Amino acid sequence: MHRLLALSFVASILFASCQPSSPDGTATGAPDSVAVPMRMVTVGGTITELVYALGLGDRIVATDRTSVYPAAMQGLPSVGHPGNIAAEGILSENPDLIIVANDAAPDDVLTQLESTQTPVWVVENENTVASTKAMICTLAERLDRRAQGDSLLAQLDRDLAEAKARVAQATTVPKVLFIYARGRGTMQVGGRGTFAETLVQLAGGTLATPDLEQFKPLNTEALVAANPDYLLFFESGLESLGGVEGVQSLPGVAQTTAGQQGQIIAMDGLLLSGFGPRLGQAVLQLSERIHPGSRTAQR
To answer: Would you indicate the residue range of the signal peptide (predicted)?
Structure first.
């Protein structure tokens, strides 16, 4: 089993390129790159999206239930949901390569897969821009799709630059509260150390609950005290609460700036939290929502 660490690509990332270079500056091949497989199983929505974006969507034969983008992937056989995936289901698809997000399958399943003759890559990704770039370059290199990887990096940098320009024109730093919801019975607030912290900061905002660590249950008193300017949800989460009207009826929301001004934002879950090839789009979209008065030059 290969754990795909990105340290070897740090220099390339600084130059926004997935092309590894020799000491004289010429491109070199990676000794552990592979012939492009014909039957891949990808586990993890971000992994599936990235492999597809590298131009290899037609080689993916099965995915997991978090692999909802692009829509074409939803029609493939599913090996289950992360945390409830069996090695047998993956191997039944006769893959010649299995690519798994490091948090998408239990260790015992990975151990079972490792015991077979099928190559297994476990891709590690953190909630940072650098980690996303490293992940793109790692897979682009291993799958011999460096040019496609460079294109993804270039688009990511363009989107981040546009978002940064928008933020630079902003006159405020709005407080944003991310709420993970699965109906009124399951609502948690994202704090420090979560994807929400990084996304909000990149978009020119700040967490409304900076002292909160990771995810914690939503507390009415704390919500009112935090007084967020914006409430941020996954689209599915907002829908589970009955839309904007449902959120505004939650205890405490009417006492916040977000509730009083109707500043409730919903974004696609994978786009917002995936830290994949569309990370720049996510940052740009969020910056546009929380800084509506700022303008940037046309792309």
So the answer is: 1-22
